Amino acid sequence: MSEELSIIQSEASTSMQKAINHLELELMKIRAGKATPNMIDGILADYYGSPTPINQIANVSTLDARTISIQPWEKNMLQAIERAIMMANIGITPQNDGVNIRLFLPPLTEERRKEMVKKCNGEGEHAKIAVRNIRRDAIEDIKKLQKDGLSEDAAKDAEAEVQQTTDKFVALIEKHLDAKEKEIMAV
Question: Domain of 76?
């Protein structure tokens, strides 16, 4: 029985860590005024009929704090990359000079920064919901084991440990959100 409990707890912890990893990825996509190559992660361009991430068909780099440069390895890919960026609707218009595509990030207004913080908080709320759902599932599994003969004390201890793990991950989510908010609000 204790082996089954430790499996439930480790699976819950692993799943919660995946929720944190997903939150980190989503927060990376939200721009904080500084240009980073990660901002175009997840944008797929049509590469000879198959959707391909831009960073696999071009060199993506930052020229300065407000400019991303995309240099395709094949010149005929310029239009496809430009079209993909336009379709992704990331709020930046690509500038094509025939060799490179440049993305100029406008400075963020106070209002836009507050919108970004709201978006970050929304992503954080999704992560918290995911962590709570994982906790609920783990506790349900523990209750099933209790019906199958697990002692009440062992079940209560296991539930308390799952709750501690949940609290730890929720605090980690809050920490990520606070850091991102400071990054966005820094002028």
Answer: 37-104
